[in-house]
Write a structure and sequence with these properties.
39 residues, 2 helices
Amino acid sequence: MFTKPIQEPCVLKNKYGITDFEQLEQRITHDAAKAVVSL
């Protein structure tokens, strides 16, 4: 089962190195899609 992690924006920025929020959301969506496909 894959659940979308809920983290503070600053934590996500540190994890992904992305400062633009829209790019950040796209990256999260992409990672979530990869995780679902890999199951």
